[in-house]
Amino acid sequence: MSSLPPADQIDPDNLSVESWRLESLIQLNKIRRILLFLALLALVMACFFAKDVLLPIILGLMLALTLSPIVRGAGRLGVPAPLSGILLIVFMGAGMVAGGYAVSGPISTWMQDAPEMGEQLREKFRGLSESVEKVKEASKEVEGLTEEAAASNRVQKVAIQQPGILNSAVSNAASTGTTLAVTLVLALFLLASGDMFRVKLVEVLPSLSEKKRALKIVYGVERAISRYLLTITLINAGLGLAVWALLMLAGLPKPYVWGLVAFVFNYLPFLGAIAGVVLVGIYSVLSFDTLGHAAIAPLLYLAATTLEGQIITPSVLGRRLELNTVSVFITVVFWGWLWGIAGALMAVPFLVIVKVVCDNVESMKTLGYFLGSADMGVKFEESDKAAGSGE
């Protein structure tokens, strides 16, 4: 055991230099943390303002990662990557156009009949609407008093006319169509390029270890994203068919529309099922005479989504998606706030990519551990015990 040197042998100059170095390291670490926080804040702000540019690019990359294993498998059979990429993108584009055309007629009809549908809802919920009307009358009285006060003070009131529902829907549909078109074209170019970008990535990195780690991350991200999105798409398709059949048995008009709604909404964790139940419930109330009969359709929709979310998806995905519920929920809320519905839909695939990168980068493994599920914690403890016994 070493002992401290005598006091007369301690050099005060060296001691002051060491303390100065320690203080400098502490200050540098603080500066690094502040700069990292500012960089993350700047990145979030850039994503918020550059949504129209970044969204189709990210969606195109994810779509290309999802379809890359299929293109690579077709290449082993002798099919060129450009041909298989074109066939896949054309097939997906045709499916989107067919789905949009199938629901465009009923949706446009419902939008035109929105005032009448609102009147029907008020009639069926008369007791609730009466209390709401009382609140409206009170608010109108307050508004009248405010207008009188404004008139007495000679304050001019400018009314801004909001765009109609139909105009907003057309504008949103055009924006969505442009985003999807750019996404499909970008995915086509990426798929047609084959392994060109992987080869360039290997050529750019200097050391062999970095090349291996980069390829491991790329193939890990590709495998995780393709497995997740392809599996979820098949599950959502099965859910859509089940909802279609159940609502058809319940006698709800146009059940195929709600099958497509279930297919699309189920990509949105947590909120998609709730939104589907609410929409089916409103339409069911408008379609049936009694509230008891109208409750059957949303209950069937809820039962189908609950069975899918609690039993089918966990059993099919298993441990392929090792993410905890809290991290998924926070990611969905954050990207939903940042980019709306489109951001919420891409939140889980983005989290999968972050998890794969964290698992393959030593300095980010702590973050990957916190993003993982409970099983990952058990594996971590077992590895620690094994390491302890080895010592």
UniProtKB/TrEMBL annotation:
GO CC annotation terms, alphabetical: membrane
One GO-annotated biological process of the protein: transmembrane transport
Superkingdom, taxonomy of origin: Bacteria
Family classification: Belongs to the autoinducer-2 exporter (AI-2E) (TC 2.A.86) family.
Main location: membrane
Name this polypeptide is given: Permease
Cell compartments where the protein resides: Membrane
Keyword Disulfide bond: no
Organism: Puniceibacterium antarcticum
A Pfam family hit: AI-2E_transport
